[in-house]
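Revision sheet: structure tokens.
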Amino acid sequence: MSVNVKVTGGSTIPSGQVNITGANSNCTITLSSSGTGSCSVRFTSTGTKTLTAAYVGDQTHLASSDTESHQVSTTLRTPTPTRVPTLPPPPPLIAINEFVPRPGTDWNNDGVVNQGDEYIELLNHGVVPVNLSGYRLDDEANIGSNPFSLPSVTLQPGERIVFYGSQTGLLLSDGGDGVRLLKPNGQLMDAYNYSVVYYPDQSFCRLPDNGGADDWNENCFPTPGLKNSLSGSILRPPAREDASQPLCPIADTLPEEFVIAECAPFGNNIWNRLYWDRFGWYGEMPLLNVNVKWEVFAD
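Predicted:
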């Protein structure tokens, strides 16, 4: 309800304030130059209510008060504020985006093609930056290589990072293995198990590369640090100037003798039959007039 007051007295007009009390929500009036003013009070129940107007006085007028009763027939209920829930922050979303277990290219640019060129690419497919400190990369659980603790590097949303075998010490088997990403608390963040790797630089990747659980493709074009693809024209490692690196397409699970016979600088990709069978196939004579590159023996 609205309360109107007027304070009079003497030859001058009173100034100052008038306090209105007696309601559930009181108010204070600052008198105008005519000694009048108004304000609003609230009641939470109906009935006869008594209000007191107390003038505080000024330099020429003494303090005074007046009390009046009023009949309240309606009330205004103060609304209860709606509680707005606090939303949790978006979760960190890091996923295995691509990996190559059988390299045929010098991906880490150390001058040789070997197991150190195996790589695992991670992607931040979330909406918040994620620091990789505490995360770990591993192959199959409880067997194989020791887990590799990731460095304290912050990945921005959409950013990729590549870890090579020469850095992680992880050896991904060509005969089938698993790649796992572990959270700082040891729980599994992401994983993928693969079977036999059929050819060098066979890439396992997500398409599209957005962290989807069912988006794995086992015949991707290797693109470390770049957007995943099923095709490409040039196998070129990141920041590499010379693309003419030797390729030795031999599985890393074969004995060392195969590497010596096949790969540079010894075999140089040439299969040396005499290395394996110096005296012919089981001592038999080769077949004559067979128009092939190598001699053919009857078994």
